[in-house]
Amino acid sequence: MRGLFLYLFLSPILGFAQAHVRLFDEPTRMWTSSYGGTVDAYCSDTWETTFWLAGDTLISDTMYQKVASRTYYYQGYINAPMNACTTSFYFDDVSRFVREVDHMVYARLSNSSERLIYDFNAEIGDTIPFPWNLDNSYTYGVVDEIDSVEVNGTYRKRFRIPEDPQLGGDDPFIVEGIGGCNGPFQGLHGQIGLSHFVALICVAEQDEVIYGDPNCSFITSIAVQRARHELLITPNPSNGHFRLSGLAPSQRYMVLDAAGRALVTGSSPELDMRPYPDGLYLLRVVGTEGNVVDAQRLLIQR
After folding, report:
1. What are the phi and psi torsion angles at 71 (to 5°)?
2. What are the distances in angstroms from CA 176 to CA 49, 103, 131, 160, 203?
3. What sign has the CA pseudo-torsion 183, 189, 190, 194?
């Protein structure tokens, strides 16, 4: 009995000491995250994105793993008239390129320099980057607790960061072999702005969910419906200057920030957002009857 007690007491500690699990080492690993909310109490917007490993590639004489992604966008009703919130489509999203060296993960876009997005060497009191540093201005947090969580039969280190008192909710965290609590490239705070939220739905290996909702879906096998994206935005990401093509004469667009504030409206093919800070923005295209006919994310990165 005493031996059993010691085993039960020490098993988390023994598991905690297992070898480091690299974040992008398993070729069948996939993540699905959700980002959504509402900006006008009219329709809700939801993006469900699946990330998966898509082979090695050489960029500037450095070998990276490509992480591809595909997104399903759909609307939901809040206070809208019938048939006003029916837009949905699939599209290939931004690819990232990652490499892990000495338990630290670096990532880049095809046209950017690499940035540190994970440091699994961290100890309590250390400052670590947020995973979305690839797409946004630098954000950091201080590790205030390290414990372990069981994933697929093994214990993984979990690094906790205090939550922003203004946001409330559970403390953000990252997990070895899983990544951030909201996804491999998402921010660690679940609430973005006033009305949008992001969350990691699940992680799978060998087509079996090992973390999160066992009933979640992955959209790597669904054909991309590019025809639904009538509006083409280039370049995206950019330094804030975007070119829009495919906008019908009767359509207008509105650009909103993460808090749901309308920043720019218009119909010009030249969209200048250089006065605004780096980050993700939502562009909605509205038809003559006020219905949303397209919705895309804009990424400003300098």
Report:
1. -125, 140
2. 21, 10, 13, 12, 12
3. negative
Determine the Cα–Cα distance for residues 6 and 238; give it in Å rounded to an integer. 57
Q: Is the peptide bond before 235 cis (omega within 30 degrees of 0)?
A: yes
- Computed on alpha carbons and rounded to an integer, the radius of gyration of the chain in Å comes to 21
* Token duo for residue 17: 């000491």
* Contact criterion met (CB below 8 Å) for 163 and 169: yes
Beta strand 43-59 with 88-92 is unpaired
Distance CA 42, CA 262 (A): 14
User: By the 8 A CB rule, do 172 and 188 touch?
Assistant: yes
**What separation, in Å, do the N-terminal and C-terminal C-alpha atoms of the chain show?**
62
Burial class (CB in 10 A: 0-12, 13-18, 19+), 7: exposed
What pLDDT digit, counting tens, does each position of 57-97 carry? Answer: 889 889 999 999 998 888 887 776 766 777 888 888 888 99
Q: Report the amino acid identity of residue 242.
A: F
E strands present in 127-231: 127-129, 140-142, 145-151, 154-160, 173-175, 179-180, 191-192, 196-205, 208-212
Residues 183, 198 contacting (CB under 8 angstroms): yes
C-alpha span between 245 and 253 (Å, rounded) = 12
Tell me the helix, strand and coil percentages in the chain, rounded to 5.
5, 50, 45
- In terms of Cα–Cα distance, which of 103, 203, 109 is closest to 151? 203
Tens of pLDDT, residues 94-148: 889 999 999 999 999 877 788 999 999 999 999 999 887 665 556 788 999 999 9
Instruction: Give the residue carrying structure tokens 């409206």.
Output: 265
Report the SS3 class of residue 277: coil
Instruction: Count CB neighbours of 194 within 10 A.
Output: 13
Q: CB of 64 within 8 A of CB of 56?
A: yes
